[in-house]
Specification:
The complex is a heterodimer. Chain A is built from 19 helices and 28 strands. Chain A is α+β, with helices and mostly antiparallel strands. Classes of the chains: A alpha+beta, B alpha+beta. At the A-B interface, helix 6, helix 7 and helix 17 of A face helix 1, helix 3, helix 4, helix 5 and helix 6 of B.
C-alpha cells in the first residue's frame, strides 16, 4: 500500500492506534474565535479543552507542516522564544525554522507561571521538551500504523517519518495531523505556575543526540524591532478606544475627598472616573487625557506623612519590630562557637529601595465587549493578570483573555499588572476600550520597589585564624509586600485604591553558596511595610529578588574575612567551598581574568587614580556564577569605572550560547547600574525619585569596556536559569575590587561618587 | 484653540488638527499611527521618542507642534527598510542588540545622525554622542559594538 492509500483510510472519525492508548480526533468546524485570532489560526479544528493535561495545549502541527508551540511563560527580551523553539524542534525532529512559539496568551496557553524566577528554560523548557517528545512519539506511532511498519524501524527527518528499510514508505507530520489538534492526555501533576509538569509517555532525547539544542541561533524578533514593524503594547489600538491617565496623591495614603470636574470642562471629551482612592481620567485623545490629569482639581484627605526621613531609613530598619524571622540554614552550635572565639569579625551592609524604572511606564489596553474582556498587557504573568482582572471586574475567569504584548521592559513585578487593573476599571466605568499608560513619575515613583534592607554578618576565628563560626542575617522589608503578580486585588495598586486591604506577605532569603563552616547560621527577618495601603514604597520582586542585596553583603563579608586572615580572596573561598561546580566557576573566572594570587588590598599604588580587582560568586536555583570585576577609582572625585568583568557561568545544559551571553551581558550592565547609581529617594510624604534625573541609571559613557563570559556547559544536566543569576554577585565583586584598590570597604549601595569620595577621605 | 498643521513625515505630507502645545510625539503616534517613536519619559531625558527634524535628532516628546514648522520629519520607519536597511539596522540585527527594544528608536536615530556627520569616530566619540540615552535592559555593550560596526560599514 502507498502512503496515500493509508491517508485516505485515515477517516474523519477517531482512529484508535497502539492498543487504544492514543486517540486522534479530527473534524468539527472552525470556530469564529479561531478565525479571528491570528495565533489560533496556526492550528484549526476542534480543540480539546485548554487544560494542562492535553498535549494540544502545548503543541500543534499545522497543515503547512509548521509547528506551533503554545507557551505559558514569556520572553522578556532574552531570546527565550528561540530557546523554546530549539527545544521543541529538537524533540520533534523538525527544522528550527518550522517552529513558531506563541507565548503568554491566555486563550491558547496554560498557566506555566509566566516570566518568573529565571525558570523559562528550567521549568518552562522542561515541559515543552516533554510535550514535544510526546508529540513525536504519538506521530511516529501513527505512522507505524499507517505505514504498517514497527516503530523501531522508523526514522524521523525534518518532520517526515520513513521506514529505515524502505525510504519510499514515508509520511509527513502534516499529512497525518496537519491542521488538526492532538487529542492526547498527559500525566499532569495538577499544579499551575512554575511547577506545572505534564509529561507523556515519551522519553526526551539523550543530549548526545542534540543537533539544534546548543546551537547559537539568532532571534527573529530583532529585525521587526529595528525596522519599526513590531507593535509594542503601547502601540495596540482598537476601534472606539479612549486614553486614560491615573492621578496619584502627593502624600502617600491620601485619598480624594473632592474632585472638581468643572476644572477639566475645557478638555475635549474628558471624563473623571473616581471611586474611593481610585482616581483617573479618560479622553478621546492621549494628549487630552494627559492635560485632563494635570488640570483636574482634587482635594485630598489630610493624612500624616507616612514615611521616615530617608536619612533614617536604615535606623528605621534596625529598630523596627521583626514580623517574621526564619533560619533557613543552620549547622553546629553557632552561639557556643562565638563564645569561645579568639577573634570576631563583624560588619553590616545596607541596600536601598530600588525601582524597576522600566524604559517606559506601564501600559495596558482593556476592551470589554459583550461580557468578554480582552487585555493587552506587557505583564510577565498573563494568566495571573487574567485572574486579577476577573476578580477586579467580578467576572468568571473564562470571560477574560490576556494577551501578552511586548512592553517597555520588565525586570520582575513592575507596574504592568497594576496598569492592567487600572485600565480595566476605567474601561468598565466609561463603557469603552481604554488604553492607559502611566506617566514617567508614576512609572518610577509608584512601581512596586525592590526592598531596602540591612545585612549583619559575623565570623568567629580561633587563634590560628581558622573560621570556627559564621552567621549572616538579613533584616528588611519583605520581598512580597505585594505578590509577584497581579492575581489578587490586594496585590495591586488598583485593588488597594479601591479599598482592599494590603496582605503583606513575608519573604526574604539567605545567601546561596556552599561555604562549609563547622558552625553556620543563615537567617532573615522581615519588618512591616511603612504604609499599609497604596504605598509607593510597597515592595515586590525586582530582578533577582533580594539576591543582589544579600550577596552584596555576604560576598563582601567573605572578602573581609579573607583580608582579616591575609589570604587571597579566591584561595580563601576555595578553602571553604564544598561543591565542585562552585569551585569550577571560580577557577574558570580566575583563570580567564589572569587573577594574580595575593591578599587584598594591594599596596603598590599611589596618586588619585587607582585600580583593583575583586571576586564574588553565588548560586541561584542550581546555576552558579563567579565574577571578577576590575575597577578604576578616581579618589579625587569618588567616581568609579567598573571597567572589566570576567564572568564564569554554569547553568548546566546550554540551549543557546549566544542568547545566553547576551543575557549575561545585560545582567552585568544592569548590575553595575544598580550598584553604582540606583537608590529610590523619598521624603516624609512620598517617593521623590520620579524621573531619570532623580533616579539615575548607568550612562553609556560609564559602560564596562569589557565583559568576558566563560560558559561552562553540562549537556547531561537539566538546564537551570540564566535570566537573573549573573546580576547577583555584581555588587560584591565591585565592592571587593574597590577594597583591593583602596583598602576601604564600602558597605552601602549605591557607590555614588559622593559616597565613595567621602568614604575614601 | 486647535490649529491645522501640515507636516512632512518620511517624505509624505499630512495635515492634522491639534493643540499647538501638543508634542509632536502624539501627532506621530496617535494621528499618523507611526508607532516607532515611543513615550519613555515626556521630559527629553531618555530618547525613546527621538525623530529627525531636518536630519537633527530631536526629542519629539517635548517638541510642540507649533515649533515643527516646515521641518522634514524622519522616524525610524523612514530610516531604512528590510530591503534597503540603514547600516545601523543591519549591524543591530547582526549584533542582536535589543532586549525589550523599547529604547532602540532613540539610539538608532541619534547614532544615524552622528555617523552621517562623523566618519571613523573613536569609541570615546561614539559614547559622547550617545550619552544621555537610556537603556534599562543594559544592552550598552552590544550597542557600542553595533555602532562601531555600522561606522565601519559607512566609512
Amino acid at each position: 500500500m502507498t502512503k496515500f492509500e493509508h491517508s485516505s483510510a485515515f477517516t474523519r472519525r477517531s482512529v484508535l492506534l497502539g492498543g487504544g492508548a492514543l486517540v486522534v480526533s479530527i473534524g468539527a468546524s472552525v470556530s469564529l474565535d479561531t478565525v479571528l485570532s491570528l495565533q489560533s489560526a496556526y492550528a484549526e479544528g476542534a480543540k480539546p479543552p485548554l487544560t494542562p493535561d492535553q498535549l494540544s495545549s502545548y503543541i500543534a502541527v499545522n497543515a503547512d507542516g509548521s509547528v506551533a508551540a503554545f507557551f505559558g511563560k514569556m520572553d522578556m527580551g532574552h531570546g527565550l522564544t528561540v530557546a523554546i523553539a530549539q527545544i521543541v524542534a529538537e524533540e520533534l525532529d523538525v527544522p528550527f525554522k518550522r517552529v513558531k512559539v506563541f507565548m503568554g496568551d491566555t486563550s491558547n496557553s496554560v498557566n506555566q507561571g509566566g516570566a518568573s524566577g529565571s525558570t523559562g528554560i528550567q521549568y518552562g523548557g522542561k515541559q515543552m521538551r516533554m510535550a514535544a517528545a510526546e508529540a513525536r512519539r504519538v506521530l511516529v506511532e501513527m505512522a507505524a500504523g499507517l505505514l504498517s511498519t514497527p516503530v523501531e524501524q522508523l526514522a524521523v527527518n525534518d518532520g517526515v517519518v520513513s521506514s529505515r528499510a524502505d525510504a519510499a514508505k514515508r509520511i509527513s507530520y502534516e499529512q497525518m495531523l496537519g491542521g488538526k489538534y492532538f487529542n492526547v492526555q498527559l500525566d499532569w501533576n495538577k499544579q499551575f505556575g512554575n511547577t506545572l509538569y505534564a509529561p507523556g509517555k515519551a522519553q526526551p532525547k539523550n543530549p548526545s543526540e542534540h543537533k539544534i539544542v546548543g546551537q547559537p541561533i539568532k532571534r527573529e524578533d530583532v529585525a521587526p524591532k529595528v525596522f519599526a514593524q513590531e507593535d509594542f503594547v503601547t502601540d495596540v489600538k482598537v476601534p472606539g478606544m479612549v486614553h486614560g491617565r491615573m492621578i496619584r496623591p502627593d502624600v502617600a495614603g491620601a485619598v480624594p475627598v473632592k474632585v472638581d470636574e468643572s476644572s477639566i470642562k475645557d478638555v475635549p471629551g474628558a471624563k473623571v472616573v473616581w471611586d474611593k482612592g481610585f482616581l483617573g481620567v479618560v479622553a478621546n485623545k492621549e494628549w487630552d487625557a494627559i492635560q485632563a490629569a494635570q488640570k483636574l482639581k482634587v482635594e485630598w484627605s489630610q493624612v500624616d506623612p507616612p514615611f521616615p526621613e530617608q536619612a533614617s531609613l536604615y535606623d528605621h530598619i534596625r529598630k523596627a519590630s521583626v514580623r517574621k524571622r526564619s533560619v533557613d540554614k543552620e549547622n553546629g552550635n553557632v552561639d557556643e562557637a562565638f563564645k569561645s572565639a579568639a577573634k570576631v569579625i563583624e560588619a553590616e551592609y545596607e541596600w536601598p529601595f530600588q525601582s524597576h524604572a522600566s524604559m517606559g511606564p506601564a501600559c495596558a489596553l482593556v476592551q470589554i465587549k459583550d461580557g468578554q474582556v480582552t487585555c493587552w498587557s506587557g505583564t510577565q504573568k498573563s494568566h495571573f493578570v487574567q485572574e486579577g482582572l476577573a476578580l477586579t471586574l467580578d467576572l468568571p475567569v473564562d470571560k477574560v483573555r490576556v494577551i501578552h504584548t511586548t512592553g517597555p521592559g520588565s525586570y520582575g513585578r513592575n507596574d504592568a499588572d497594576d496598569c492592567a487593573m487600572d485600565a480595566a476599571v476605567l474601561a468598565k466605568a466609561v463603557g469603552k476600550p481604554v488604553r492607559l499608560q502611566y506617566m514617567r513619575e508614576q512609572g518610577t515613583g509608584w512601581d512596586p520597589k525592590g526592598p531596602a534592607s540591612i545585612h549583619r554578618a559575623r565570623a568567629a576565628l580561633d587563634a590560628t585564624g581558622k573560621v570556627t563560626a559564621y552567621e549572616f542575617t538579613s533584616k528588611g522589608f519583605s520581598r512580597v509586600d505585594v505578590n509577584t503578580n497581579g492575581g489578587k486585588p490586594h496585590d495591586t495598586l488598583c485593588g488597594q485604591t479601591l479599598g482592599v486591604a494590603l496582605k503583606s506577605g513575608d519573604g526574604f532569603g539567605v545567601p546561596a553558596e556552599s561555604y562549609a563552616f563547622d558552625n553556620k547560621r543563615l537567617a532573615w527577618e522581615t519588618i512591616p511595610p511603612l504604609l499599609d495601603r497604596s504605598s509607593p514604597l510597597r515592595s515586590a520582586h525586582l530582578r533577582d529578588p533580594v539576591g543582589p542585596q544579600i550577596h552584596f553583603a555576604s560576598e563582601s563579608f567573605i572578602d573581609e574575612v579573607a583580608a582579616a586572615v591575609n589570604v587571597d580572596p579566591i584561595e580563601f573561598r576555595l578553602r571553604h567551598i564544598k561543591e565542585p561546580r562552585d569551585m569550577a566557576v571560580i577557577k574558570a573566572a580566575a583563570e580567564k581574568a589572569k587573577w594574580e594570587t595575593r591578599p587584598s588590598p594591594r599596596r603598590d599604588q599611589s596618586g588619585s587614580k587607582v585600580s583593583g580587582r575583586g571576586i564574588a560568586y553565588s548560586q541561584r536555583n542550581g546555576t552558579r556564577v563567579a565574577i571578577v570585576a576590575e575597577v578604576d577609582i578616581d579618589r579625587s572625585t569618588g567616581k568609579i569605572w567598573a571597567r572589566k568583568f570576567t564572568v564564569a557561568h554554569d547553568c548546566a545544559q546550554i540551549i543557546n550560547p549566544d542568547g545566553l551571553v547576551k543575557c549575561i551581558e545585560g545582567n552585568i550592565v544592569q548590575g553595575v547600574s544598580r550598584t553604582l547609581w540606583e537608590e529610590v529617594t523619598f521624603d516624609r510624604k512620598s517617593v521623590t525619585s520620579i524621573d531619570w534625573l532623580t533616579y539615575p541609571i548607568l550612562d553609556i559613557t560609564e559602560t564596562p569596556a569589557e565583559v568576558h563570559v566563560v560558559l561552562i556547559n553540562h549537556p547531561d544536566l537539566p538546564p537551570t536559569g540564566a535570566g537573573e543569576p549573573s546580576i547577583r554577585p555584581v555588587a560584591a565583586a565591585i565592592a571587593n575590587a574597590i577594597f583591593d584598590a583602596t583598602g576601604v570597604r564600602i558597605r552601602r549601595v549605591p557607590f555614588s561618587p559622593e559616597r565613595v569620595k567621602s568614604a575614601l577621605s | 484653540m486647535s490649529q491645522r498643521f501640515t507636516i512632512t513625515v518620511n517624505g509624505k505630507s499630512h495635515t492634522i488638527t491639534a493643540d499647538p502645545d501638543m508634542p509632536l510625539l502624539y501627532a506621530l503616534r496617535d494621528e499618523l499611527r507611526l508607532n516607532n517613536p515611543h513615550f519613555g519619559c515626556g521630559l527629553a531625558q531618555c530618547g525613546a521618542c527621538t525623530v529627525h527634524l531636518d536630519g537633527q535628532p530631536t526629542r519629539s516628546c517635548i517638541t510642540a507642534m507649533s515649533a515643527v514648522g516646515e521641518a522634514k520629519i524622519t522616524t525610524l520607519a523612514g530610516l531604512g527598510t528590510p530591503e534597503k536597511p540603514h547600516p545601523l539596522q543591519t549591524s543591530y540585527i547582526e549584533e542582536q542588540v535589543p532586549q525589550c527594544g523599547y529604547c532602540i528608536n532613540g539610539w538608532l536615530m541619534t547614532a544615524a545622525a552622528f555617523l552621517r556627520d562623523k566618519k571613523k569616530p573613536t569609541e570615546a566619540e561614539i559614547k559622547d554622542a550617545l550619552s544621555g540615552l537610556k537603556c534599562r535592559c543594559g544592552t550598552h555593550i552590544s550597542i557600542l559594538k553595533a555602532v562601531k560596526r555600522a561606522a565601519e560599514m559607512m566609512s
